[in-house]
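Good morning,

Attaching, inline, the backbone tokens for the sequence recovery test we're adding to the shared suite. The designed sequence is right after.
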């Protein structure tokens, strides 16, 4: 793994962290002190997305972060930080395929880097680091695959390039119909 996203590892306190010698660091949310940053990053991602017309729920976002803190074996909320400031967010979980048994799949439900950061020269590093961190997290849980469903309708061509660079394979698409 490169210097931008070294393997997620355990620190002396039992929480998982990643290290970096570059401008970005990546770590799993480890305490309730992280929740305000998670809420703000999720809010900004939501407002930008095609689903931004749906009222944002701080309560649901807080519950996601609390679940990741409470049960890091099944849920992860990862932060990308630049100069100790949260600039990116990834939320994923692991579980069995809904109609299968015995094989774990990890799913990235949300990934976003602040618009100001992703438009900078090094912006892709933050997203790439989050994807690599999610891969390490999923491997540590013995997931067979890591899935990413892109439904935000934001910068899809950039996301496609980024996921290919991170080793993902394009396997289909997401479709929506207003009703």
């Amino acid at each position: 793994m490169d210097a931008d996203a070294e393997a997620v590892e355990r620190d002396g306190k039992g929480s998982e962290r990643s290290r970096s010698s570059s401008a970005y660091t990546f770590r799993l949310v480890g305490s309730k002190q992280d929740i305000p940053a998670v809420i703000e990053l999720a809010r900004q991602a939501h407002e930008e997305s095609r689903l931004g017309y749906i009222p944002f729920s701080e309560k649901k976002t807080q519950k996601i972060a609390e679940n990741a803190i409470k049960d890091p074996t099944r849920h992860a909320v990862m932060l990308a930080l630049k100069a100790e400031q949260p600039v990116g967010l990834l939320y994923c979980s692991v579980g069995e395929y809904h109609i299968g048994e015995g094989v774990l799949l990890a799913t990235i439900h949300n990934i976003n880097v602040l618009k100001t950061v992703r438009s900078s020269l090094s912006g892709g590093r933050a997203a790439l680091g989050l994807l690599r961190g999610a891969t390490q997290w999923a491997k540590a849980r013995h997931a067979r695959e890591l899935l990413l469903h892109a439904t935000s309708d934001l910068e899809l061509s950039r996301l496609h390039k980024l996921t290919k660079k991170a080793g993902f394979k394009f396997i289909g698409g997401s479709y929506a119909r207003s009703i």
